[in-house]
Amino acid sequence: MANATINGRSVEFEPGKTILQVARAADIYIPVLCEHPALEIAGACRVCLVEVEKNPKLLTACSTPIMDGMVIETNTEKVRAARKAVIELLLIRHPLECFSCSSNGKCELQAIAYDLGIEKSPFWEEGDTCVEHKLDDSNPFYIRDLNKCILCGRCIRVCDKLSQYHAIDFQQRGIHTAVQPPVGRKLEESDCTFCGQCVAVCPVGALYEKPSVGKGRPWEVETTKTICTYCGVGCELLVEVNKRTGKIANVTSDHTNMNSVNKGRTCVKGRFSWEFVNHPDRLKTPLIKENGEFRKATWDEALDKVAEGLKRNMGKTGFFSSARCTNEENYLMQRFAREVMGTNNIDHCAHL
Amino acid sequence: MTNNFDSIQSADTIMVIGSNTTEAHPVIGMMIKEQVRKGAKLIVCDPRTIELHELATVKINQRSGSDVALLNGMMNVILAENLHNPKFIEERVEKFEELKATVEKYTPEYVEGITGVPADTIREAARTYAAGPNSALFYTMGITQHTTGTNNVRSCCNLALLCGMMGRPGTGVNPLRGQNNVQGACDMGALPATLPGYLKVGLPAAAEKIEKLWGCKIPEEGKVGLSVVTMMKAAGNGELKALYIMGENPMVTDPNTNHVAHALDTLDFLVVQDIFLTETAERADVVLPAACWPEKTGTYSNTIRAVQLSHKACDSPGEAREDWTIFVELAKRLGHNWDFKSSSEVFDDIARFVPAYAGMSHERLEKGYLQWPCPTPEHPGTPNLHAVQFSRPNGMATFSPCEWAAPHEWPDEEYPFIANTGRNLYHYHSGSMSRRGPSGRYVKGLYIEVNPADAAAMGICEGENVKVESRRGEVTGVARITESVPEKMVFVPFHFGEAPANMLTASVWDPTSETPPFKVSAVKVSKA
Questions:
Q1: pTM
Q2: Which of A65, A116, B468, B484 is 20 to 30 Å apart from B282, CA to CA?
Q3: Residue B115 backbone phi and psi in degrees, to 5
Q4: Cβ of B231 and A324 within 8 Å?
Q5: Residue where a domain terminates, one of A175, A209, A243
């Protein structure tokens, strides 16, 4: 173990870590934008600048290895001034549309600006350097508002390293730089498979989920850990339910949870294909067929009818269980078939 | 899977056969691609050219239904060139002589004739797999959904055992489970031949256990029950009178849709418990509304045998109920006083019955998943199987040599094409969930993949309707012209109830697993 001092506090660490990693473990706040714990270090945004004794320049906490005996300050006047300048420059091209932005309340840029007391960029009036991008809502999964993009590159790195597609990258140069699929292609024509991991790591409102638009603000939702209902990988998904409406507002994943089987990775179905849960077609009452037509029934009526139909066919009944139901449900169905109905005629869709 | 996901990071060679991983198991596809980009070699064997072929060191497009021959051919090369692992075989595997005798005739040149794969490519695949040092094999329904499915799986195991690719990280025989709780439904004994924990129904131990824990006799004196496909057959000929279907849609997912419709309509009584009025539920006498994934707390067992607790996030609509509570109510009505108050109590009943789950509880799973076997509350779970011994009485594995046999149906003059059915990335099974949402808006209906040469010969252009017809029925979809299917093959995804791919498939099955042969149907193709 080695020792360093951050903001006057002594911290112990295993060599090989960065200043940011050690500070984070010690609950010392250093703002970041391009850095994400699941991704490679880029050192691009310069928001995490800190002062290190005997270093004439400020250093990026995300990419500077912490050394034994280092004395680090994370919140001095000099540091705050430098950070403020970085954020003010970013805000030149970032529309302050927080009212309507779906990231309002979870936007990392907004949080840092608030911390630094910035209202708007002082450079705003100095000539129009912004490139107007058209809102891209052409696919049904997520929306891209490149006007809000701060070019941190998290989406590019997550697509390359975790999704393994590298469907997007920085295109053009200078003030025209934008994150796009190559050679002017549309997203639908690119290698993108809409797994939505770029959306999960976007620090601002440049990327957001289409199915969740208008379904709830970050502070209105309660998050619950679930296991995806689709294939057998068993990805952990975080279901956000709007406490006011009781309905799903969004589904996300946690790229920092190294104890989940997917470690934040998802596919298009897990992340975006949840609308069926709230779909008006959902069955809401038991149904009994009479003269070829279904009518609504009470549970008591329906269960009596089922019990009667099963009793009548004791010894000639079969059961299809479901690989979409829980262990508990499968266990009870087969126990019901064997104990109550006295049959081994039970199977499920394993082969299909 | 014998191994876990982290094990992929230790693989030097990855062999993928009969698995379109990036579409059917996208997150595992990402893990495989990550390891290949770090330098692992990749062998991909699939009749279609799939995304993983792009990254493959050895690219194979075997003829549909020729897998046993291909794998035997690889083993023939490995034995001829002395690339096998004699120490592993000597210590851990029986019937080596039998295997040698069987694969002897499968020379690469002979196998080329069956599979259409050049002999030298078979040699390269064999050498690459055997070189390891750690080679992991992955397969899915492209291996199992054949009339020879069981022999296909056995051949995969033979290959892994021959090279000693078992019991270490980076190795293993890894079937990717297609649905989120296929593993669990099997573990729970939702199978006609086994009780929970794979206890065979015919064994005296099964009768004893069921009597002790449930207080009842073993059903039908331990006779194996009917499977999904044989129940449907028995329903069709009037031997089975009632069916209780929970969360399945056989009108879309089972073979030979016309026969399924006939079978369901012949029943005296059909009850369907589901979340939507599916094509199957429409034929029911009683429909019971069920809660779905985020509306209940319970466990799922995934493809790496990880038992995971999923929590309730929201209420279910209307009067829909959790499936397990419905069985408790019905058991009471039929004179069995079940007293489960929560799914956690049901799980405790599972832990009493299934030795591999005995060390688990909802409380423990709250802290994180556990991979079975986990026999005691102190046991950490088992990431990789078969490290020391195999689960046979003497701890040894055995080779199960297989001869190649042609599929149940082969193209002829009248039906000159093969239809292959499977999944599309954006959709899931019968589509009742994925079609109600953005995936449904993105891929709206049935498309049929046709090779450009075939399309040109028939005068079919991209986007035009194409009709596919088998001896059982026909479907029409929009042509997608692509070289990913070889000539004389069409690919038909099976998610679309209004144009079900299973109109084409045959209700025949593998004699051991009773899995239908969804990957091979002889068809004719024409412009619609």
A1: 0.95
A2: B468
A3: -95, -20
A4: no
A5: A209
